[in-house]
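Aim 2, interim progress. The first record below pairs a target sequence with its C-alpha cells.
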Amino acid sequence: QVQLVESGGGLVQPGGSLRLSCAASGRIFSNSVMGWYRQAPGKERELVATISSGGFTNYADSVKGRFTISAGNVKNTVYLQMNSLKPEETAVYYCNVNQSPYGNYWGQGTQVTVSS
C-alpha cells in the first residue's frame, strides 16, 4: 500500500508563489512516475506535471516556464514549485504515484486559492 500526504496549499495573491510537498510512504517502485494533478470546481481533473524515476519531467503547456516539479534524493518526496500563479489556477492539487499496471495512488489533496 502507498500513502501520499500533500501540504503547502493556501491562499496566495495573483502573481505569487507556493511550493507544494508530497510525502510518500509504503513501497514505491523504482520505475514509478510521480506527479501533480489539479481539479477546479465543476471541472475535470487535469495533469499539471510528472517526474519519472530517471528525473525526466513533463508539464502541461499552461504551466511550462512557471512550475517546477522535483523529487527528493531518497525518492519519498515530490515537490511542485508554482510561480506567477493565476486566479484560474485555483483548485485542489493532488499528488499521484503511478505504478502502472499495478497501482495508481492519490493523496487527499491540498487547496490552492489564487485571489486578491
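The second target in this work package is listed in the same format:
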Amino acid sequence: QVQLVESGGDVVQAGGSLRLSCAASGRSIISTYCRGWFRQAPGKEREHVASIHLGDYSTDYVDSVKGRFTFSRDNAKNTLYLQMNNLKPEDTGTYYCAADWMYGGGCKGEARYNFWGQGTQVTVSS
C-alpha cells in the first residue's frame, strides 16, 4: 500500500520561505516515473506546480513559480521536497504531492497520477 504524507505547510508573510515534504511509504520513490506537486487555491481548480519526469530527469515548473520554487528528493529518506522562496499571496492554497510508477507519457496532468497525499495548507499573507 503506497502512502504519501505531506507536511510543512504554514502561515507565512509575503517574501518568506517554506519547505514542504512528502514522505512516501510502501514503495521507493527512486523508481517513480512521474513525481509532482500540485496546488489548489480557494475557489480554483487544482493546478500543476512542479514535476519531475524520470525519462529525462527534467523538472517542469509552472511559470509563476520559476526561480522561486525548487523540487528535490532525498532517496535515503524516500521523501520529496518543495522549497518555496519569496512566497507571494497568490501562492496560497492546499499543496499536494503525487507520484506514479507507470512508464510513459508526460507528468504535468493530474490524471497521470494514481497516488496522492492528503494535502498541506500554505497561507501567504500580504
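The longest strand covers residues 18-25. This observation will shape the mutagenesis plan for the next reporting period.
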